[in-house]
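ok trying this again, last paste got cut off
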Amino acid sequence: AVVSTQSTGRNTADMSSNPQRLTNVLLLISFLDYLGVSLVYPLMGLKIRELGASQFLSGVISSSYGAIQLFSATAHGIVCDKYGRRQTLIFCLILITCSYLSLSSTLSFLGILIVRSVLGMVKHTQATFKIIGGDVNTGTSRSTFISKSNSLSGLAFMIGPFLSAYFFSPETSFQYGCWWCTGLFVLTLFITCLFVEETLPNSASDKLDKPSDKPSSSIVQRFKKYKSLQHILIYRFCAALSVIILRYFTPLYTKHYFGFNAKHAGYMTSFIGFSGIICSSLAGYLALLIPDKLKLTKYLSLLLILSILLTLLSSSMPWFLATQFILSFATQNLRIMVDSLILSAASDTDRGEIFGLGASVIGLCRVGGPVIAGSLAELHMMLPLVCSVVLAAAGSAALFNFKQKQS
């Protein structure tokens, strides 16, 4: 099956009685979702270390989430296509709520590992929000929806850790954070049950019952199945791995060359988050300026290469901060454009599977990126940056090579 790279052109009113209201509800619950996670996620590593875990065991527990999502993301997308977006979302929210409630009273490595594993299997709420948004939005409105969602996620990850640090004492911050996170997911579940409508047409789930239309049995087979999306998925892999290596390596780089300590690293993280909010909000204007999303993605891929090269050449802190803003602009808008391209290329019957396949690619990068960055840094401090440039250039070459094939 070859997926068309053009929008399906369907009438969104057939899937939602009020697409704009549903879009606003999706943005609200997306923010609540990220806010809840941001109350707990920054404290997870500290909690594991408090229980006496070694660096290795802490790494294993932390990576279990990404490793499981590598395989569960595509399966989740298939379930969305088969049984409906709304039912799948409600089921996941129930399990997520129970998981964070259990996490608040967990006092062992095994308990945290089990909870993290369950979350790795079902914490695909953000992907589901974007799939539903892709169902009810088309063209520029789809890119605008994704940009707003990403901006709100950045805002949530700025607010959450601040609230946790300000209102909770260090001794109880993890437990209270889990409780508040549970409450926010209960609220998200309540809003979902009341206001989120099913956007998967009945014909879509019926079509998947045919043997010829059943999903492929492996990630590789699914990759081969969607030939028209292969260039986008290859670029997503190269760009995501490039950025993850760079982000993971940044604290080591700034400590080595600029003498950063933990406090400075926190300020840097906040600066990157704030830059991400600003840059994500510009995606809608970029889409209006350059309506061709593939062409815009190619321009942004070149900007990503330039920003990494500038980081490599930075010799002072003001210069480094400027390169980080340019990098945030490129990465945030690339995320939006690539997500929009994937959603636009999908039909009603396989939007979940295709988006899940893209999420699996990101999961692979999250598992492998830190390992690659750490290994290269052991050899030479600049090698992770060089590797990041090479990966970004390879991904960009795949995009431009796709243009030559189509011409």
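PB: full thing came through this time. The CA atoms of residues 34 and 153 lie 6 Å apart.
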